[in-house]
Amino acid sequence: MSVPVLTVATVPDYIASQPHLAGLVDVSTLDVVEVGDGNLNLVFIVTDATGRSLTLKQSLPYVRMVGESWPLSQDRILAEDRGYRAAVQFSPGSIPEYFGLDEPARTIAMQDLSAWTVWRRALNDGRVHDGVATELGRYVARIGFGTSAFGLDSAALKIAQDNAANPELCKITEDLIFTHPFTDHPDNAWDAALTPDVLSLREGGLVDEAAELKYIFMTRAEALIHGDLHTGSVFVPDESSEETARVFDIEFAFYGPVAFDVGSLFGNILLAEARAAVLERPAEFRLWLAGLRGEVWTAFETELRALWPNRVDPAFTDQFLDRWLAQTFSDAVGFGGLKAIRRIVGLAKASDIQTLDEAPRLEAAQAVLRTARSWVEGRRGFTGTDDLRLS
Amino acid sequence: MSVPVLTVATVPDYIASQPHLAGLVDVSTLDVVEVGDGNLNLVFIVTDATGRSLTLKQSLPYVRMVGESWPLSQDRILAEDRGYRAAVQFSPGSIPEYFGLDEPARTIAMQDLSAWTVWRRALNDGRVHDGVATELGRYVARIGFGTSAFGLDSAALKIAQDNAANPELCKITEDLIFTHPFTDHPDNAWDAALTPDVLSLREGGLVDEAAELKYIFMTRAEALIHGDLHTGSVFVPDESSEETARVFDIEFAFYGPVAFDVGSLFGNILLAEARAAVLERPAEFRLWLAGLRGEVWTAFETELRALWPNRVDPAFTDQFLDRWLAQTFSDAVGFGGLKAIRRIVGLAKASDIQTLDEAPRLEAAQAVLRTARSWVEGRRGFTGTDDLRLS
After folding, report:
1. Gap from A240 CA to chain B (nearest CA, Å)
2. How many CB atoms are closer than 10 A to CB B302?
């Protein structure tokens, strides 16, 4: 299926034609800018003369950063809509206000948060935002509880599992995170000086661990996870705000392992730590960064334990929850390591490292690979986030 | 959806109306008998004057053993059709010749094996059938390989996972195997003398282990498993035959853990062992019985390793396979224990134990519960089937 691609010129008429967007902005005085800096989509910020605004996202039929040579179904916007709707239901304060899907045009609309900052950028700049990690840990717990066998009865869970397919975006993750970094693949790229470090990833047991985590990713249909919950998928407000954070870019959503979202946060915090280390950021900032994984995990566990008495099936005992949390932690550490490695070796890089000068970039990349490998290989032995410091 | 229920009188005209059954039997000379001794369906054996025959199965809109008070969707025949078609594709010699589905009437048709014996009955009678356990282990491996991430590429796997829903029959398993035996449930039933043994199942960590295995059953979408692979779901031929076994009753099929099918065999072999012990069957027979789990596992592992070079994704390494097999063994032991327990405590009993006189019945039931519990609780420490003897 292909649908007309929106442009800055056609967006006002398009919005005027959409009943679910009626009244949100004055369609006769719209200013439209296209701000999509992601890889896969068009993103329009639409503002009227009174200052009211919204964000409109349209999935394109190809991977934007590569071009039309990499076709990709626009159905992924349906997955993103599922992700937003789950958040509306279970953790509404964690996302931009959501205005819904227009399935024929493959668009979704939401609150304009362009005055906010992408968290990765704030971290890159050395800025502290308290409460963000806690909000994210809670978000993962709430969705993980609400959409899993804990929050849904058996029949509802099966319907949800079977209606959350997102095959193309899952395949991207399977390839780019679990496979390509450990093989000769043309999409891989890294600084030449890093070659020995990268090639050494293919030696020893790391590929076997990656295989095991890939299999878990492909077969463990626990909950409607975000699927791409890195620090670039989170908005943070002005430091003076009482708000904490908003999660966005949920187009990778599918029924998968809850640990994958937790791990994505762990791994991306590692990138921020490596940057801060080579830039010799103040010790206070670095200590704050190093504590973020603990904040994520504590919030996740606390929220899940708070929701636990409401589980639909009492067959899941308290002792079971303890074990499920331990397993989820261990898997998250593994996923987090792989998420960090792919940002050094694979197709899609992260600005945390890429914007550094050559010498610190190499140093930071080496530290990430070293630490990430220790996570993946040692994940069954770690007992808490204190074991996960940059090494 | 409800469809006309077939009767002995209406079956001939029905078969004559079905193009996919044309020519299999002479519809003008049919003799029809209804032989369904299962819990959920009508089963007709249809024979013509020349001796040609077939089996016709129709799902009923309720659980037959309970009656119309327990409604059950007839869609389960679609799940059974999926199970048979997977077997036709990957292990055709393991099932009766399959003639296909008539979706509107909710019937499937297959080779008439009424001259064969249900394996549970042969085991109850103390009869040896060599090769059956090997055939079953191979069957589980072939379907487990062919329908999983080993045999299907990422996209095909997702389509298969999402189109194999069998919610009502999964719920029966979730309740009857993982939950009811460990709770006060009106469907439970056991010999009064067994009460202390049954109540002790609720003490200690067994319920936590059952919770963990239930969660795996509900979330690990590995392959299109049989879902009810006990010794009553297997036909064995006359001892003089060169044939080995045919699997049937695949209506519980869904995307679940491969270990569940392996474990079902383990647990049901345990019931046969317990019967043979209290009946003081010849040592040779009992030794043969005790070796069947090893035969199942060896065949399963051997077949999977033979298929392994054909896996579609080389990211799954040899070392990964070793670990996958170890995990599958451990999970199978746990599932097997629970499958055995439910046959003593739960709604659906097994003739292995139920047809015994009172004193040996109690002794056998106690041995099953004792051994099964040791399996579930000790499953992570066992290294091979020799650890699983009746105790």
Report:
1. 43
2. 14
Q: Which residue of A317, A323, A330, A377 is the best one to mutate when testing the B interface, meaning the one whose CB has the most B CBs within 10 A? A: A317
Mutate to test the interface with B, among A75, A153, A154 (most CBs of B within 10 A): A154
Shortest distance, CA A3 to any CA of chain B (angstroms) = 23
- The interface pTM score, or ipTM, of the predicted complex is 0.95
Q: What's the pLDDT tens digit per position in B5-44?
A: 899 999 999 999 999 999 999 999 999 999 986 567 899 9
Provide the token pair at B209: 């282990």
Q: Give the amino acid at B381.
A: G
pLDDT, tens only, A334-357: 999 999 999 999 878 899 999 999
Interface test with B, best of A219, A222, A320 (most B CBs within 10 A): A219
Closest approach of A213 to chain B, Cα-based (Å): 10
> CB-based contacts of B61: which residues, under 8 Å, 6+ apart?
B2, B71, B72, B73, B74
| A219 contacts chain B (CB < 8 A) | yes
Do the chains contact at A317 and B208, CB–CB below 8 Å? Answer: yes
Residue B88 burial class via C-beta count within 10 angstroms: exposed 0-12, middle 13-18, buried 19 and up:
middle
Measure Cα distances from A345 to A27, A185, A193 in Å: 45, 10, 12
A61: nearest Cα among A168, A186, A185: A168
Closest chain B residue to A204 measured between Cα atoms?
B319
Amino acid identity for residue B256 in this structure: G
Listing DSSP states for A184-238 in one string gives --TT----GGGHHHHHHTTSTTHHHHHHHHHHHHHHB--EEE-S--SGGGEEE--
Closest CA to A78 of A166, A169, A168, A173: A166
Looking at residue A155, its amino acid is A
How far apart CA A266 and CA A285 sit, in angstroms, is 17
Mean pLDDT of chain A: 94
Task: Give residue B1's pLDDT.
Answer: 45
As given in the structure block, the two tokens for residue A101 are 């899907």
Indicate yes or no: CB of A154 within 8 angstroms of CB of B167.
yes
What Å distances lie between residue B320 and A98, A209, B63, B316, B326, CA to CA? 42, 8, 41, 6, 10
Burial (CB < 10 A; 0-12, 13-18, 19+), residue A384, is exposed
> Who's near B326: CB < 8 A, 6+ residues apart?
none
* B181 closest CA partner among B156, B157, B148, B214: B214
Exposure string (b/e) for B332-361, b if CB count within 10 Å is 16 or more?
bbbbbbbbbbbbbbbbebbbbbeebeeebb
How many Å apart are CA B357 and CA B364, to the nearest integer?
A: 10
Smallest CA–CA separation between B273 and chain A, in Å? 30
Q: Which of B71, B343, B332, B68 is nearest to B225 (CA)?
A: B332
Rounded CA-CA distance A96/A88 in Å is 9
Looking at the complex, does the CB of residue B362 fall below 8 Å from at least one CB of chain A? Answer: no
Residues paired with B126 in a beta bridge? none
**pTM: predicted TM-score of the whole model, two decimal places:** 0.96
Using the Cβ of B214 and the Cβ atoms of chain A, whether some distance falls under 8 Å is answered with yes
> Which residues is B45 bridged to in the sheet?
B33, B55
The candidate with the shortest Cα–Cα distance to A365, out of A378, A346, A383, is A346
CA distance B258 to A254: 22
d(CA A255, CA A239): 34
Cβ contact B223:B140 at 8 Å: no
**pLDDT value of residue A208:** 98
- In 3D, which of B121, B160, B173 has the Cα closest to residue B354? B121
Is B218 in the A-facing interface, judged by CB distances under 8 Å? yes
Distance CA B317, CA B5 (A): 50
